[in-house]
Amino acid sequence: MALRVGVIGGGQLARMMIAPAVELGIDIRVLAEGEGMSAQLAATALGDYRDLDIVRAFARDVDVITFDHEHVPQAVLRALVAEGVAVHPGPDALQFAQDKLVMRARLTELGIPQPDWAAVANVDELQAFLDDHGGKGVVKTPRGGYDGKGVRVVRTAAEAADWLADLEGDALLVEELVSFTRELAQQIARRPSGQMVAYPVVETVQRDGVCAEVFAPAPGAGERLMRVAEAIGRQIAEGLGVTGMLAVELFETDDERILVNELAMRPHNSGHWSQDGAVTGQFEQHLRAVADLPLGDATPRAQWSVMVNILGGPAEGTFEDRFEAAMAEHPEAKIHTYGKSARPGRKVGHVNVSGNDLDDAVYTARAAAAHFA
Amino acid sequence: MALRVGVIGGGQLARMMIAPAVELGIDIRVLAEGEGMSAQLAATALGDYRDLDIVRAFARDVDVITFDHEHVPQAVLRALVAEGVAVHPGPDALQFAQDKLVMRARLTELGIPQPDWAAVANVDELQAFLDDHGGKGVVKTPRGGYDGKGVRVVRTAAEAADWLADLEGDALLVEELVSFTRELAQQIARRPSGQMVAYPVVETVQRDGVCAEVFAPAPGAGERLMRVAEAIGRQIAEGLGVTGMLAVELFETDDERILVNELAMRPHNSGHWSQDGAVTGQFEQHLRAVADLPLGDATPRAQWSVMVNILGGPAEGTFEDRFEAAMAEHPEAKIHTYGKSARPGRKVGHVNVSGNDLDDAVYTARAAAAHFA
Description:
The structure is a homodimer. By secondary structure, the first copy, chain A, is an alpha+beta fold. In chain A, the strands form three sheets. In chain A, strands 9, 10, 11, 12, 13, 14, 15, 16 and 17 form a nine-stranded antiparallel sheet that branches. In chain A, strands 3-2-1-4 form a four-stranded parallel sheet, with helices on both faces. A four-stranded antiparallel sheet of chain A has the order 5-8-6-7, sandwiched between helices. The first copy, chain A, has helices at residues 12-24, 52-60, 74-82, 91-98, 100-110, 123-132, 161-165, 223-239, 274-277, 282-290, 319-329, 358-370; strands spanning 4-8, 27-32, 43-46, 64-67, 117-120, 137-140, 151-154, 172-175, 180-190, 196-198, 202-207, 210-216, 244-253, 258-264, 304-312, 334-337, 346-355. Chain A has three domains: 4-87, Rossmann fold (3-Layer(aba) Sandwich), CATH 3.40.50; 116-175, Dna Ligase, domain 1, CATH 3.30.1490; 180-370, ATP-grasp fold, B domain (D-amino Acid Aminotransferase, Chain A, domain 1), CATH 3.30.470. In chain A, strand 13 and strand 14 (258-264) form a beta hairpin. Chain A is built from twelve helices and 17 strands. In chain A, helix 1 (12-24) packs across helix 10. The N and C termini of chain A lie far apart (44 Å). The A-B interface holds A 2-3, 15-16, 18-20, 22-25, 41-42, 197, 275, 279-280, 288, 293-297, 299, 301-302, 320, 323-324, 327-328, 331-332, 334-339, 349, 354 and B 2-3, 15-16, 18-20, 22-25, 41-42, 197, 275, 279-280, 288, 293-297, 299, 301-302, 320, 323-324, 327-328, 331-332, 334-339, 349, 354.
């Protein structure tokens, strides 16, 4: 019988696991939040991932549980593990992706370079941190933020007063506002048995808090940067016991330091380039990792790969018309769609282009994506 | 609403259309012959493809019909077309892939180089052809053969007496036994609107009448061979009105002639390398072509790509154990499985390997595939 992998969550990350699952011969099953989700083709169950009974019933028919997102509650995850279900990444690892304060504390223990940070429970504590850090900082809600949500740059504590008022005994995370030259991301795959494979560090470009473009490998990255980024990724994957794909978002600073910004324990937007640009794409690699199969080669297939997100916009014409125009003008562009209705700023797909000339690849990927924006 | 492509037949070719369909955002639906077929994930209907009512009901909910195989009867295809269904390739083209005598006659009209051939209805006609061709020939049943079935090399007409006795007014095809140095295959994609894209000609290695290995591009192929093979492919695609993928199997002779052996109007075993080795794989290309979307770039991603079929054999251990061993030893091998139970000689998957060294790629692909044989 084929190996059965159950994915909790029916979004585009689950959708993009379908293609490699079919080729590998893995029976992929998805617990989707509702009808018509991105991963509908593989949806075998519908329901609330916060409901243990629903998740338990879904888990009964698969060999391993993994995720489209990091929002399944710890109580649900731990109940599954207690009942003998293989869950990857497991709750002990996933807590660090679910709570940014827990993550910061653990990275501090591990000695991983990161921005100065503090847990602050009130205006005075926050103001003290800001005063110590040049009168500015980044305030984050520890849980539930993504794509720039739950993140606020502040210059006085009053600017976070609303969040502080809602805390009910918890704390906010405040971080030093890092003066960075660019953002990078390091991806690592890790099997339960410990094998790890590193992707080359990439440059990510954010717009309005959302990933817009990725260049792989990071242009101008020398051997030192590649090595440092990979070492950080490996140390975190091992130190946090991550299984599956880990993405480490990094700041590169003016003074050539590399600091950890965020973590994701799943395939990540910064790794979409690898679908077409690496021997083993991140979605195949995630499946291999969570199923504890030997990992694939993460070597790039071309000198450069560029990923540009398609943010569904107000362009005229149907999605299909634009699809046709993009394909006609850019036959070398690999267009990936998420089966979502377009609305401004919503990630509805992405374009990958690989080649030996970075400028050409960037131009083509942007031009193809522009048909949809 | 997403474009809906309906595939008749639930075999591995339909299965391998699923991955690119998901990425392109095409709603792929499969009419499978039964439960548990290779393309089960996308199966939305079950039934006999020779039954017009079943096929008509399936066609009602899709925008275009295409195929996993070439066995749907002309009567069914023509009824669909008469009712306004888009069918690609259409019956006018498909007849040339369904009947080798019709194909030979049409290629003769088009002036395409091919082996000497004749339609023979009895022992005397067959013996006369053999006598004219050095006392040997290849006898083929015009319809229904594949993977070496329905093909017999004979030295006297008596060796085909059983087939001749069953003819009931039809004829057999007899062809000159070509003295070839190797077999090649040329793939062409063609849209209904006429756009064509050619893949580089490849070398195919057959064992016991079944495709065993493919080297892409054909080693040692000079510009002349590439050009001649592509021209033959384009002329056939256009002359026969093919839509979708066309594979032209070719003989390369001692005296450097290129002769057409067989045709297939669908993705073909000789093109599996392109899934990982070309910018646009043949399964994506077929979907683009039958949906009349602009065709993708067919440029190889690497200097060499090698495909080795996995012929399910009597090896010890479970399929999963062998899968794990193959992955562990060959992380750069792309393993594709068809979800079929293994039995000796049955195609149950294939391995693609790309790289800049042909010998290395051949070694790795064979070694990975050998874990399954």
